[in-house]
Write a structure and sequence with these properties.
By secondary structure, the chain is of the alpha/beta class. 45% of the residues lie in helices and 13% in strands. The protein has a six-stranded parallel sheet with strand order 5-4-1-6-7-8, sandwiched between helices. Strands 2-3 form a two-stranded antiparallel sheet.
Length: 220
């Protein structure tokens, strides 16, 4: 395998354990309409899916009158309130990996289906915003994962050849997006992604530490 010159990370489920907060956020919205989403339903059908896809799902499932845009806005408001009081935690080994790569001057970026309102507060609170050359959120693209637009935009901004990138993803849609952009992608089988057996990645690992031990020789 060629030497990797830059790494692009997914955010939710790959770098941070935020799915429980997203679950709480959607339930906050649904409870206001006198409905409730079970944890099983969320983690089997919504975990790892971009916010627009989640909004479409709950609108159809509960026959909500509100349009998609309104549901997304309500969900983001709920997420902002929850994140103000409940700390989002890094996935195991994520912070150590980011610190190491930053110290070694390996260019890093993020491509996420989350909004900028959801991403930026975490990067600021953990003082790691400067670690990333670019952050591409769903606000920066017309089409979210599994469409490759976000990865194509990020790769273009970073300026390397496509064969120079490594993408780390924990969802099927994210892997599909990275591969559609012709980028090397490692799948991280996180706790939430265990509900969906990952396929299509160049290699699949149990966690970030295992992935890092594999790719360390090709980034240094």
């Amino acid at each position: 395998m060629r030497k990797i010159k830059a790494i692009i990370f997914d955010f939710d489920g790959t770098l941070v354990d935020s799915e429980n907060i997203h679950y709480q956020s959607w339930n906050t919205v649904l409870i206001s309409f006198h409905y409730e989403l079970s944890s099983r339903d969320y983690f089997e059908n919504l975990a790892g899916v971009p916010t627009l896809g989640n909004a479409s799902y709950v609108k159809v499932k509960y026959a909500l009158k509100q349009n998609i845009t309104t549901l997304v806005d309500l969900k983001e408001q709920a997420t902002t309130k929850i994140m103000a009081t409940e700390r989002v935690r890094f996935m195991p080994y994520a912070k150590e990996l980011l610190d190491f790569l930053y110290q070694k001057n390996i260019p890093m970026s993020i491509v996420t289906g989350s909004s900028r309102k959801e991403l930026d507060p975490f990067l600021t609170s953990e003082n790691i915003r400067h670690y990333f050359k670019h952050t591409i959120t769903r606000d920066d693209v017309n089409l979210s994962k599994p469409n490759p637009e976000g990865y194509l935009k990020c790769a273009q901004l970073m300026g390397f050849k496509k064969t120079d990138y490594l993408v780390l993803e924990d969802t099927q849609g994210g892997i599909a997006a990275a591969k559609a952009a012709n980028l090397t992608c490692f799948g991280i089988q996180s706790d939430t992604s265990l509900h969906h057996k990952l396929q299509g990645a160049d290699t699949i690992f149990a966690n970030l530490e295992e992935a890092f031990l594999h790719f360390k020789p090709i980034v240094l």
